[in-house]
Amino acid sequence: MLDIRHMKTLVALRDAGSLVDAARRLHLTQSALSHQLKDLESRLNTRLFERKSRPIRFTRAGLEVLQLADNVLPMIQRTEQTLKKIEAGHDGRLHMAIECHSCFEWLMPAINQFRDHWPDVEIDLTTSFHFQPLEALRRGDIDLVITSDPADDPVVTHIPLFRYQSVLAIANQHPLTQYDWISPEHLSEETLIHYPVDRRRLDIFERFLEPHGIEPSATRETELTLMMIQLVASGRGVACLPNWALQTYLDAGLISVRPLGEAGVWPVLYAAIRKEQSGTQYLKDFIETAAESSFATLEGIVQPEA
């Protein structure tokens, strides 16, 4: 009477907190999800959750099913991953480069989890300050690139991980704190601190300043995010970074942030791989693990738009 699909549905409802969000996660209409839940309750001859509660409140029966799902579903997932490894073979190589220079903190747990599943896959990780990672990907020198700058390429496919907001970090005493959001013109008299990469790979230039023909008064480069924050906090410039990368410094009261433009700038972070490897199981598993790790770790990110 109770199958895996039912358990996954109830877990999605619990994790999403509403029928609307659960339906979106399961790629169902809200009507289809409601029908599925009613069918399950009919089979079990009991109510599983309160229909009008916010957030969703489960009945005793619903909690019992959820406890079963929490025990059973991870076991099934581990077994499926083991079977995939048996089919695909254990050996492989995953050499990756990161264009998102603030990604180490959330990516490392994903790499550690991946190692547990694929211990014989050789892993190598580098930043891309000093070379062009997508060209290296096309040549086969590396296998995966984390990037927010997708290119229309016959050889490469880009798989979306999440959307994030690029925001401007400013000192707490900076005059720009009086504004709710930053206009491009506000930066014409500012020193802009950024990573030492081509400006075409930086959101602040590509998506905000250059479309309006605006140049900052000066620029300054640093490879370290912490150094960037220290310079900003001491009033020696402003910096554009992902919202989630600044959360720790915001919580500590070191800096202030403002969105870029009234609507904000919302890039998407992608995992880029060669199309010929899109069916490689360990690559698919790593990308799924990276997406799950990001949503478990980062604040302020959202699902990429379909």
UniProtKB/TrEMBL annotation:
Protein localization: Cytoplasm
Keywords linked to the UniProt accession: Amino-acid biosynthesis, Cytoplasm, DNA-binding, Methionine biosynthesis, Transcription, Transcription regulation
GO CC terms of this entry: cytoplasm; protein-DNA complex
GO biological process: methionine biosynthetic process
PROSITE patterns: HTH_LYSR
Predominant location category: cytoplasm
Domain HTH lysR-type: 2-59
GO MF terms, alphabetically ordered: DNA binding; DNA-binding transcription factor activity
PANTHER family: HTH-TYPE TRANSCRIPTIONAL REGULATOR CYNR (PTHR30346:SF28), TRANSCRIPTIONAL DUAL REGULATOR HCAR-RELATED (PTHR30346)
Family, as annotated: Belongs to the LysR transcriptional regulatory family.
Protein name as annotated: HTH-type transcriptional regulator MetR
